[in-house]
């Protein structure tokens, strides 16, 4: 069962965190990537700097795995992508999957990204 997203599209996640509307819980998880170029890994993906980023280095699909140590409710997922900065690495499709382990993941959201 899914809960409708009540966060307005385009809302600034940092502003929402400052006002107490959302809470960043990514630090409670173990993050891994299907591949990355040296210097463009998890640390750059998570550093809150829009000038740094994750850059994959391998065949598709490119995956970001976020594993929590215990069952965790995630109500909002914010992803920043900048097509104008690097169109070749901007995702065209995003799939969000959940499960108890990597082998029983079920897709709960699929989005074809608008490229502008």
From TrEMBL:
Residue ranges occupied by any DOC domain in the UniProt entry: 1-116
A biological process from GO: anaphase-promoting complex-dependent catabolic process
Gene3D superfamilies the UniProt entry points to: Galactose-binding domain-like
GO cellular component: anaphase-promoting complex
Stored PROSITE patterns: DOC (PS51284)
Keywords: Cell cycle, Cell division, Mitosis, Ubl conjugation pathway
SMART domains in alphabetical order: APC10 (SM01337)
UniProt-listed SUPFAM superfamilies: Galactose-binding domain-like (SSF49785)
Family in the record: Belongs to the APC10 family.
UniProt protein name: Anaphase-promoting complex subunit 10
Gene assigned in the entry: ANAPC10
